[in-house]
Amino acid sequence: MPQDSQRYSAANLVRDFLDYFAARGHDVVPSAPLLPDDPTLLFTAAGMVPFKGYFSDPASAPYARAASVQKCLRAGGKQSDLENVGRTLRHHTFFEMLGNFSFGDYFKKEAIEWGWDLSVEIWKMDPARMWVSVFEEDDEAFELWEKHIGFPRDRIVRMGRADNFWGPVGDTGICGPSSEMYYDSGRPGKEGGPAVESGDRYIEYWNLVFPQFFYTAGGKYDLLPRPGIDTGLGLERLAVILQGVEDNFHTDEFLPIRTAVAKSVGDGAREEAAQLAINAAADHVRALTFALAEGIVPSNEGRGYVLRRLLRRALTKLQPFGVREPFLADAVDAVVRTMSPRYPELTARAALVKEMVTAEEERFISTLEQGMGRLERVLDEARGSRSRVVPGAEVFMLYDTFGFPPELTEEFALDAGLGIDRDGFQSSMQAQKERSGGAIGVAGTTNGEKFITIGDFKRSEFVGYDALSCDASAAGLRRARGATTDDQYIEFTTDRTVFYPEGGGQVGDAGRARFGDTELNVVDTFRVGDRIAHRASWTSAGDPEEIFQAHPGGRLDVDRERRLATARNHTATHLLHAALRSVLGDHVAQAGSLVAPDRFRFDFHHFQAMKPEEVAEVEHIVTEAIMADMSVTAQSMPYKEAIATGAMALFGEKYGDTVRVVSVEDFSRELCGGTHLAHTGEIGPFFIRQEGAVGAGIRRVEALTGAGAFRFAKALVAERNSIAALLKVAPEDIDKRVRTLLDDVDAMQKQLRRDESRQARDSAGDALSAAITIGDVTFVAAKVEAGDVPSLRRYGDALREKLQTGVAVISQSQADKPVCLIVVSDRAVSEKSISAADITREISKALSFRGGGKKHMAQIGLGNIEDFDRVADFVKETLKSLT
Ligand code: ALA
Questions:
Q1: 209 CB near ligand 1 (under 6 Å)
Q2: How far apart are the CA of 238 and the centre of ligand 1, in A?
């Protein structure tokens, strides 16, 4: 067994692999991003993903053979290994897959021969420790191993579909039987060759797939015109075998990351139970670093949600072993140091990645400890219950209050031999959405009745990009509730409409409609399946159904001013998006938006507050783009083409094959279905009214355009004038005047405090005259006039100075929930060993008031002033027993 780790460093293994296949006619292709060029896949989860199309259409491939080292992420979606990470010693979320591929070129014989040759001739693996598996029906592969290679037949295992049939990587696509190569590590585990239950013993390191089929949406296996080859060799598993280290997490390129994580765990890292948790956290940090460096950001949806889950899983796994401080940034540094020789792009993004993980981490850590406590209680209760299932409401509470992804709770539950109620979780989630009024606009109050059919139209066509009026035929009708029973509404759908239905952040159109003699005031428009519904107030006494049945043909007119005002805001949203990217960087991605007639807001990923000068620069860029009066155009095109021209799409959003691209000359290009202006000049004035946070790493800009912006500016000027009048200065002197006023207030407050202290000293003298002596300790109890706690403390200080050897109990006489102080003079502390803190502790125990402090002074919160005598008596009794 060769154990020369230098010779077999990960970097050398990668080089060996690519050299070997390059020498056999393969084009060496660089890794594609983790973010696949396919909206139906969550992440690139195999080496073949970037080549998918070439297997079904070899003629379209620029090369017949290729080899690559592909970054892969298997966390979420169909190909997830997430739950296994931190349980086995061989699974990762992020890993690198070495692969050789044939697109209708060579087939099984070469694939098997080269897999064997590279393993035993170049890498000198011990043939006696190797095993292979083939698909149970694949006699051809069995024979190739036995006859062509001369592999002993008792170490060729036939396995079923679950193990030896690979793909497709999404719901449809390339798949076929496979043959896998294993190495017996000698680690504990069931003997006798690879099987499902052999655990970590037989390392499955190389999967040779023989793609022969295309699995269709209809569930059929279509034979490919020419079969190909798709292999995947896991770099860590290969390194384990050749470096002779104990597991994947101790290979040359993984160990430094693991060590960095273990260091943050501190002493707890030595615990046996911590080892798997450290592995998992190190794995997750590596995955996060690569994904964030590519510009994918944590969020509550889609890919971003997977990242958030990884991060939270890493933190929760380590929490029981004593990690309390944010540690991810250090671990990210270790990933960058270790991996940047082969992935230089990591270095440039390191600072950004660290800021993002730390922002997320800080947010989660603050609730983590409480969350874990709660989780343990919840699991305990479920353990004691008959169903042994964690109720959905608890899963939801852990999610909503403590940020525990439900999948994470489920994992902890499974570890404890319990289940979770997923349906219950969903309904709690739904109930909360309804409580918070999930939908925008009045459409949210629809009572969900079925539509009565007026005309037989299955879908509504939107014809309102250019026109604002059209004739239309009614399709369906229902009555709808308003906020009160006096508000009567109807909702009607039509075969076609110029009314824009709420979508893509843009609110629905309003306007007028007429059916027969009935004039309708349309207040909102939204989609219901394939149809577009108009919501109109119903004021007439007649029956809407009769009216629509009698006059199914009508006229629709969109409110032009409102539409135009909305379009101003929508076009401005695109300008803002482009300006934010140019000022803050390309990581700025839209996280949500609301486009209304009077304002708009735009949420985006960014990890810190915008500086005032950044806001000003963004405003400036947008205003320049408005003044340049650029033309705005929309065009339909295939999704792929749109993305290729650099149009911005939303992460995690599903788009159809054909998309609409809205361009503002060369300034901005976005996939968008909304209504826009023809020229940016129509926007008029533009202002950012506010910038703030809406979540970890998500900022919100609220802005105004057109008449709204004008009104805003006018209001600001009016306000400024009225403040100036109030201050009796010219508007430009407001600043100076306010400064002087603040200085005056400051001086007055100081004077007030001085007076109060003097008064306190005087009245402390009065209090002292009522002192009694207990043993040789002076004792004073007094209710005093002190507006706030600081002045009560000043009083206490004054009293303490006057007491020789003494203890005083004082309280606010007027406050709602008065505060009580116990003060102990220096000599009482040093000569009599009396401590205010100790007495307070006894009071907390005996009278159950909350308090605490130091030897000389401690503070207790009272329910009301009547409680004071009980406290004073307690102190008196305590002194008696001491002296
Ligand atoms: N595509 C195959 C896999 O991912 C090689 O295992």
A1: yes
A2: 15
Q: How far is the CA of 80 from the centre of ligand 1 (A)?
A: 13
Say if residue 445's pLDDT is above 70: no
Q: Is 176 in the pocket of ligand 1 (CB under 6 A)?
A: no
Residue 49 Cβ < 6 Å to ligand 1? no
Domain boundaries, the chain: 10-250, 255-436, 452-558, 566-714, 750-882
Average pLDDT, the chain: 89
In angstroms, rounded to a whole number, what is the distance separating the alpha carbons of residues 463 and 375? 53
Our answer on whether the CB atom of 180 is closer than 6 Å to any ligand 1 atom is: no
Measured from the Cβ of residue 852, the count of other Cβ atoms closer than 10 Å reads 12
Question: 382-440 pLDDT, tens per residue?
Answer: 888 888 889 988 898 888 878 888 888 988 888 888 889 888 888 888 776 655 433 32
β-strand partners of 419: 389
Distance 253 CA to ligand 1 centre (A): 22
Which protein residue's CA is at the shortest distance from atom 2 of ligand 1? 232
Residue nearest atom 4 of ligand 1, based on CA coordinates:
46
The band of 196, judged by pLDDT with boundaries at 50, 70 and 90, is low
Q: Which atom of ligand 1 is nearest to the CA of 97?
A: 4
- pLDDT(572) > 80: yes
Point out the ligand 1 atom lying closest to the alpha carbon of residue 208.
5
| 750-882 under CATH 3.10.310.40, yes or no | yes
Token code pair at residue 263: 């260091």
DSSP 579-596: HHHHHH-TT--EEEEEE-
* Whether the CB of 232 sits within 6 Å of ligand 1: yes
CA of 232 from ligand 1 middle (Å) equals 5
Question: 578 pLDDT exceeds 70?
Answer: yes
Residues 6+ apart with CB under 8 A from 681: 626, 627, 629
Q: Is 682 exposed, middle or buried (0-12, 13-18, 19+ CB in 10 A)?
A: middle
> How many whole angstroms from 107 Cα to the centroid of ligand 1?
16
Counting atoms of ligand 1 from 1, which one is nearest the CA of 72?
Answer: 4
Residue 45 C-alpha to ligand 1 middle, in angstroms?
8
* Stretch (H or E) spanning 721: helix 706-727
Measured in angstroms, how far is the CA atom of residue 46 from the centroid of ligand 1? 6
**What's the confidence (pLDDT) of residue 533?**
93
Instruction: Name residue, tokens 């195999």.
Output: 46
Name residue 133's amino acid.
Answer: S
CA 441 vs CA 91, 512, 523, 691: distances in Å? 47, 18, 9, 23
pLDDT tens readout for residues 825-837: 999 999 999 999 9
The CATH architecture of the domain made up of 10-250 is: 2-Layer Sandwich (3.30)
Give DSSP secondary structure letters for 322-355.
Answer: T--S--HHHHHHHHHHHHTTT-THHHHHHHHHHH
> How many angstroms separate the alpha carbon of residue 162 from the centre of ligand 1?
13
Residue 125 has a pLDDT of 96
Q: Which atom of ligand 1 is nearest to the CA of 167?
A: 1
CATH fold for domain 452-558: Elongation Factor Tu (Ef-tu); domain 3 (2.40.30)
Q: Tell me, in angstroms, the distance from the centre of ligand 1 to residue 205's CA.
A: 11
Say what the pLDDT of residue 441 is: 30
Percent over 90 (pLDDT), the chain: 56
Region 125-136: mean pLDDT is 95
Cα gap 327→338, rounded to integer Å: 17
Q: What is the pTM of this model?
A: 0.56
Q: Most distant CA pair in the chain: distance in Å? A: 111
Q: Considering the chain, what percentage of its residues have pLDDT values greater than 70?
A: 95
Task: Indicate which atom in ligand 1 lies nearest the CA of residue 48.
Answer: 1
CA dihedral in degrees (684, 690, 691, 692; nearest 10)?
-150
CATH level 2 (architecture), domain 566-714 = 2-Layer Sandwich (3.30)
